[in-house]
Amino acid sequence: MNIDGKTTVLGVMGDPIGHTGSPAIHNFIADRLGDNLVYVPFHVRRNGLAAAVEGAYELGIRGMNVTVPHKQDILQEVAELEDSALAIGAVNTIVRSKSGYKGFNTDFSGFMRQLDHYSIIVYNKPVIMLGAGGAARAVMYALQKIGASRIYVLNRSKAKAKEEFGKLPNVEILGFDEWDKIPGSEKYICIQCTSVGLAPLSNECVIKDDDFFDLVSVGVDLIYVPSETVFMKKIKERGNKAYNGLRMLIYQAISSYEIFMDKEVDNDIAEALYEKLDS
Ligand code: ATR
């Protein structure tokens, strides 16, 4: 890295921020592409978000990723919103425009690219989603956009899931103990969007009844630490494929990078990142 008077500054804002893997990913891509930039972590507290965004703009920071707890609050601080970010109601990427920053949601595009990578065809297929939080929102937007036929959302709080997705015509909301209401005549793509199973509580799965997994033809867990969750194990034990969320993480970063730098990142960089980060 060679910092000079023309170095572009990018970063990630969050609280906490010490654990973030984004600087390693973005600086790796910049290094590979020979881009003159630096990507740094910014510890921004909730009540400092507006001042941080204003200050970043004045300092000429080209773009930033936005993580917990700011993904929703940042909507109030941007000058423009891309359609998917508006529809999802969450922003994880901001890039400077003439009048301020423009907000994007690359969790959504990262998820789409992950499905594509694994050749998981969602169009006209029935899907089961576990969870109804922030990550699930981006997943639901993707599933609707691709055209899943029917989506069963299982969540601990049915009321919250109904509030999030209850108005969508092809969605049915169930509790985790009601999974047997899902017709057994079909097999389902299952997307695990809860935080259950995330390290250090790695031996947990939000679905306790093993018979549930007979419904699943292929599974995607958004969790990537550990690299094989209990959810994934149960699917694989039945001879089916299951993937973790590492590629979604990589692709959301690549999508952000492409927006920041207005250029395409080749897939060999995605593969190199996967090799570097897969444990
Ligand atoms: P994220 O941004 O990662 O999606 P979130 O918005 O806090 O985080 O959502 C977490 C999801 O995991 C929710 O679906 C949550 O269920 P509730 O909506 O009922 O809160 C789910 N979740 C978290 N801890 C859980 C637990 N112990 N058992 C079941 N579900 C859990």
Topology of helices and strands:
Blueprint: E1 8-14, H1 22-33, E2 37-43, H2 49-59, E3 63-66, E4 80-81, H3 83-88, E5 93-96, E6 101-104, H4 106-117, E7 126-130, H5 134-146, E8 150-154, H6 158-165, E9 171-174, E10 188-192, E11 216-221, H7 230-237, E12 241-243, H8 246-261, H9 267-277
Bound molecules: 2'-monophosphoadenosine-5'-diphosphate (ATR).
Uncertain regions spanning at least 5 consecutive residues: none
The biggest beta sheet is recorded as:
6 strands, mixed
Can you tell me the CATH class of the largest domain? Answer: Alpha Beta
The whole-angstrom Rg is: 19 Å
Q: Which ligands are bound?
A: 2'-monophosphoadenosine-5'-diphosphate
Beta content: 15-25%
Rounded mean pLDDT score: 97
Q: Cα distance, first to last residue?
A: 26 Å
What structural class should be given to the helix and strand makeup? Answer: alpha/beta
**CATH level-3 fold name of the largest domain:** Rossmann fold
What order do the strands of the largest sheet run in, or round the barrel if closed? 2-1-3-5-6-4
- Global morphology: globular
CATH architecture of the largest domain: 3-Layer(aba) Sandwich
Number of strands: 12
Count of discrete domains:
2
Query: Could you estimate the helical fraction of the residues in percent?
Result: 25-40%
CATH superfamily of the largest domain: NAD(P)-binding Rossmann-like Domain
Number of helices: 9
One letter per element, helices H and strands E, the order comes to: EHEHEEHEEHEHEHEEEHEHH
